[in-house]
Amino acid sequence: MSWIYAAAGLGVAGLAVLGVLAARVLTAARGLGRELDRARRRIEPAHARLRAEIANRPSEG
């Protein structure tokens, strides 16, 4: 009968480990989103200039 308690305890411990790892993944994903947003804001002025340059280029033909 004690093996049932041991199995239940190991199951709960496994779920706790999965919960901690899921929290770490979510935190890392949130940080990556912030980095991408910061990079997008830094690149946007150059991107807008390049689009304007392409739009003002005389058509070939």
Describe the structure.
The chain is mainly α and 61 residues long. The protein has a domain at 21-55. The chain contains 1 helix and no strands. The chain has one helix spanning 2-56. The chain is rod-shaped and about 85 Å long. The model has no long low-confidence stretch (mean pLDDT 94).
Shape: rod-shaped
User: How big a fraction of the residues is strand?
Assistant: under 5%
**SSE run:** H
Q: Could you tell me the mean pLDDT?
A: 94
Counted by DSSP, the helix tally is 1
Features:
about 0% strand, about 60 residues
Summary, kept brief:
The protein is mainly α. It has one helix spanning 2-56. It has 1 helix and no strands.
Write the layout of secondary structure elements.
Blueprint: H1 2-56
